[in-house]
């Protein structure tokens, strides 16, 4: 039996006549009749008694109808599922993000993309950037979003797409530097600063830029992430040089009631984000669409913030 024979057979069983079956299938009546005869020949069994223009099914035909209907319905379901998967409308998604974006921006985007679609299952994790790289090396998720911490991607483990953008200075609203639109590095000479931990590349680059401008670093607070610094900054405890998505997030959630403002830094290093995907785990259409959409979302958010984003795709050999 083949698919064409089973389709014709079910149509004849469910239609009032051979002509009605042909019309339902969009085929000619001789073509449907030929399919029925070839099916009977392959089975060695007459499935219908010919009574004039009527085809009356024999008892065995009713059994075959139930079985072929199950097969055809299952094939239709599989075809529908595959179309849904191809269109990115169903499937499983396993993603991870560093803590800053994972608090608001990343889940907001994922929820907006997937909507209320019950056919999409989501696993969303908040991990540090080193942890995300370790997961990617073990092919442990679809993709992750991290910051660049001075480690290049390995051609053997994961790919990195990079987005670079300008940093911002987070300042208490009533601080004198809040009156400036652009902050020079020398403006931070001996100013109390909150930075990421000393092992983080951003801490090291901030200190290096400040010293290059002839200033003295005065680090009074260190934190694993930027967002926990916002209450200290709003209280006037310190300033901080932060990544631009932290500025976007604080503008969106307004955790300090507007008591922290952000000003662009004058030159210096650019903050780098990476979209990381495993080498040996090809992305599904769903994951690919969401990954590419997230890249566009980040670029748009950074552009609106005035951070002048640049995108660098994975190298061809990665």
What are the defining features of this structure?
3 domains; alpha/beta; four-stranded mixed sheet; about 325 residues; rod-shaped; D-Maltodextrin-Binding Protein, domain 2; Arc Repressor Mutant, subunit A; about 40% helix; six-stranded mixed sheet
Please describe what this structure looks like.
The structure is a single chain. This protein has eleven helices and 14 strands. The chain is of the alpha/beta class and 318 residues long. The chain has three domains: 84 residues, Arc Repressor Mutant, subunit A (Orthogonal Bundle); 117 residues, Periplasmic binding protein-like II (D-Maltodextrin-Binding Protein, domain 2); 101 residues, Periplasmic binding protein-like II (D-Maltodextrin-Binding Protein, domain 2, 3-Layer(aba) Sandwich), CATH 3.40.190. Helix content is 42%, strand content 24%. It has a six-stranded mixed β-sheet, sandwiched between helices. The protein has a four-stranded mixed β-sheet with strand order 8-12-7-11.
Q: Measured on Cα atoms, how large is the radius of gyration?
A: 31 Å
Give me the secondary-structure category: alpha/beta
CATH superfamily of the largest domain: Periplasmic binding protein-like II
CATH T-level topology of the largest domain: D-Maltodextrin-Binding Protein, domain 2
Number of helices: 11
**What is the global morphology?**
rod-shaped
Number of domains: 3
Give the end-to-end Cα distance, rounded to a whole number of Å: 47 Å
CATH architecture type of the largest domain: 3-Layer(aba) Sandwich
* Unreliably modeled segments: none
Strand content: 15-25%
Please provide the count of β strands. 14
User: For the largest beta sheet, what order do the strands appear in spatially?
Assistant: 4-3-5-13-6-14
- Per CATH, the class of the largest domain reads Alpha Beta
N-to-C SSE series?
A: HHHEEHEHHEHEEEEEHEHEHEEHE
Largest sheet: 6 strands, mixed
Q: Provide the helix percentage.
A: 40-55%
Multimeric status of the protein: single chain
- Averaged pLDDT, please? 89
């Amino acid at each position: 039996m083949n698919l064409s024979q089973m389709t014709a057979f079910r149509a004849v069983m469910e239609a009032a006549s051979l002509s009605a079956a042909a019309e339902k299938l969009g085929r000619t009546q001789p073509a449907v009749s030929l399919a029925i005869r070839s099916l009977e020949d392959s089975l060695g069994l007459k499935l219908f008694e010919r009574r004039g223009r009527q085809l009356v099914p024999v008892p065995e035909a009713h059994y075959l109808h139930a079985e072929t209907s199950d097969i055809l319905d299952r094939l239709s379901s599989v075809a529908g599922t595959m179309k849904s998967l191809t269109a990115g409308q169903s499937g499983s998604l396993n993603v991870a993000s560093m803590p800053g974006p994972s608090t608001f921006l990343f889940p907001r985007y994922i929820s907006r993309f997937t909507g209320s679609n019950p056919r999409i299952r989501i696993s969303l994790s908040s991990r540090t950037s080193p942890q995300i790289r370790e997961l990617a090396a073990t092919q442990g998720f679809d993709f992750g979003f991290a910051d660049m911490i001075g480690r290049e991607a390995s051609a053997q483990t994961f790919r990195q797409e990079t987005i670079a953008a300008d940093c911002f200075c987070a300042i208490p609203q009533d601080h004198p530097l809040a009156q400036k639109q652009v902050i020079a590095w020398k403006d931070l000479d001996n100013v109390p600063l909150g930075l990421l931990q000393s092992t983080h590349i951003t801490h090291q680059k901030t200190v290096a830029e400040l010293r290059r401008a002839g200033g003295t670093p005065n680090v009074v607070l260190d934190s694993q992430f930027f967002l926990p610094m916002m209450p200290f900054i709003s209280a006037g405890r310190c300033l901080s040089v932060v990544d631009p998505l932290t500025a976007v997030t604080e503008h969106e959630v307004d955790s300090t009631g507007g008591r922290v403002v952000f000003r662009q830094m004058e030159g210096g290093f650019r903050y780098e984000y990476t979209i990381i995907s495993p080498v040996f785990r090809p992305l599904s259409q769903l994951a690919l669409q969401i990954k590419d959409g997230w890249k566009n979302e980040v670029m748009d958010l950074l552009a609106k913030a005035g951070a002048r984003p640049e995108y660098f795709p994975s190298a061809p050999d990665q």
